[in-house]
């Protein structure tokens, strides 16, 4: 039996066990998958003890993705720009790090019928998660990827990383708007977005059964805006991670209603 887990703080809400156990059943793989709550100052010890027991892989959630990257002996190419990891794998006694967030977002957008070539993309936020998705979005050849940030000091770092990145522009009409920031009333970034197209996609990385404050704000701008949350990204990034661990690409279509039913219970 293979032993895997997800580590976070908090971690009780994680849907990773449900997703991975479903993939394992579909692919006839015998695995045990647990949740591990780590104290903030105890993460490194948790990881070391897990792999010392010859267990196979860890999924990493906030706030530990940067520290997970630092613990690895080997790093996949998808970790290089963001310096974060959401997957650690025991490979012949060495810890291998990967980050599947960006490809998970892109695969979900494609699954939902999005066409990004020639589009104007806006991302709200300024954290490392943007680094983890930039290269995947660039691969689809959009016209621009603008950032609307709370801390503009970070803009130069992103502009150096990509010639498509620039600051939010009131005069631009955006066709894909991605939120990476907290859904709290005090978040004023949502109201700063002024123009989105009639057929725009609003994508909130948080996953929840309810409409988020961000999605509600985009709906006020354009009533017909297509609204998606991070459930699909969670499924698709897990698919890529599962393939990294077991060299099997699992089917995902049935996971969408399964996770939605979980929220509706």
Briefly characterize the structure.
The protein is of the alpha/beta class and 265 residues long. 36% of the residues lie in helices and 23% in strands. The protein is built from 10 helices and 12 strands.
Spell the H/E element sequence: EHEHEHEEEHEHEHEEHEHEHH
Q: Whole-number radius of gyration?
A: 18 Å
Approximate helicity band: 25-40%
Shape: globular
- E-strand count: 12
In whole angstroms, the N-to-C terminal distance is 30 Å
Structural class: alpha/beta
Number of helices: 10
Provide the residue-averaged pLDDT: 95
According to CATH, what is the class of the largest domain? Alpha Beta
Q: Beta-strand percentage?
A: 15-25%
| Uncertain stretches | none
**Could you name the CATH homologous superfamily of the largest domain?**
Leucine Dehydrogenase, chain A, domain 1
Which fold name is given in CATH as the topology of the largest domain? Rossmann fold
Q: Quickly give the CATH architecture of the largest domain.
A: 3-Layer(aba) Sandwich
The number of domains? 2
Q: Largest sheet at a glance?
A: 6 strands, mixed
Task: Give a verbal description of the structure.
- With 265 residues, the chain is of the alpha/beta class.
- The protein has 2 domains: 131 residues, Rossmann fold (3-Layer(aba) Sandwich); 128 residues, 3-Layer(aba) Sandwich (Rossmann fold).
- It is 36% helix and 23% strand.
- The protein contains 10 helices and 12 strands.
- It has a 6-stranded mixed beta sheet with strand order 2-1-3-5-6-4, sandwiched between helices.
- Strand 8, helix 6 and strand 9 form a beta-alpha-beta unit.
- Helix 1 crosses helix 9, helix 4 packs across helix 5 and helix 4 crosses helix 9.
- The radius of gyration is 18 Å and the shape is globular.
- The two termini are 30 Å apart.
- 43% of the residues are buried.
- The model has no long low-confidence stretch (mean pLDDT 95).
